[in-house]
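Q: Structure tokens for this one, please.
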Amino acid sequence: MQEYSAFFLFIEWIVRLLFIPVIAMKYRPPAALAWIAIVSFQPFVGIILLYIFGSNRLPRRRIAEHARRRRTLQLDIWPLLHKYCIDPEPLTERQSRHCLSVQLGEMPAVTGNDFELIDDTDEAIDRIIADIEQAEVNVHLLFYIWRNDETGRRMADAIVDAEKRGVHCRVLVDAVGSGNFIRTQSQRLEEAGVEIWPILPVNLFRRRFHRIDMRNHRKLVVIDGKIAYTGSQNIVNSDYGTKRTIWHDLMMRLKGPIVLQLQSVFLTDWFAETHIQLDKHECFPHPHDEGDHSMQLFPSGPTYRTLNLHRLIVAMLYQARREVTITTPYFVPDDSLMQAIEVARLRGVRVILVLPERSDQILVSAAQRSFYAELLEMDVEIFLFKPGLLHSKTLTIDRQFALVGTSNMDIRSFSLNLELNLILFDEATVETVSQQQKAYLKKAVPLTHAEWEERHLVKNFGEAVARLLAPLL
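A: Here is the predicted structure, written as tokens:
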């Protein structure tokens, strides 16, 4: 028995000595230290976790397919969009921001759009279903979570009815986030003629294995290439089945040239899963001038060569002059994001974080709270939203820049998930988002430094441990 224990201990040390240098060379320091801690503590468990969760990139072939398909679709829609593209005045901050967002997001900003913010789950679902009922050509839906609950079945009924009318209905749902819906409802939809595909299916024994935590987190509806929805809301009851907590989401209903950019994202993800190219004439009708709002679609995720959304947000924080307001359910920043916030505060920029008082993610929430003391010391204003789980993801800067979409302010959203955000440029449009943020602030209470220092030491210890895993969350 002692010989077996000694041999087992010897193997553990061999694993540590072999894998720690590999981890150090492969990962950046924060992630490397987290993985080294896990492998050092439990070598064999650590290796398994490293195999399953260790890569934050999709297979190279898939990344190359995404890039080629994005370029092809941009060329397809350019003749339809070029007259709506914005050309900012040269040598201005506006031009600098626009150049950065175009380089990182690979899409131009366009004008001629109309939009509505919808902050009520039931209203958003009702509006989507009403638009589906008026569809004539096609309905495309892409969601991270689609539950088999009352809301999910209502939406499924709407697309089945649309398919019976001759409307081509296509659905992409994340294989993990919508696993139950796929198992219980996909056959019914397929029998009605609806095309439904799971995104990034997970199977350890498949050649193209995908990480269980690397997901398509996008929420997107495109109807006839003329009306689109995107934002933070999934197709699920507002309490997510908890019967206790209400999720507070934000969706945007869009009309105008921006809809073609949203359609191109759906077609790119559709091709990635099905290898089927949809007819561009069916999917890209000629756009019309629907309003005077300027905006840009900004997709992000592991199919891009850099952490493009993270780069954009950090750069915009350094450009902030007066005020930054962020609403997000999950706030787990890395060092560069924390430094950008700190520098903004040192320059006198007011920084406001509106976060949920209660969270559905225990480990992420603990890691998030571990940053509160440091943020409060910077004089960052933290407000805790009380009525339920604030799930709305927004960022406004100086009434000149706003971000609304699916991405949380955490490392997972920046590096692991496929996300979709809208950038808003003109002052009137940004002000609309700012007013929504103020509505959240009215339902939130400020967190003070003195109040936070009075917390029990055990809670501080648990949060400090969770923070060690922050680079992997």
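A few notes: The chain has 18 helices and 19 strands. The CA atoms of residues 21 and 79 lie 51 Å apart.
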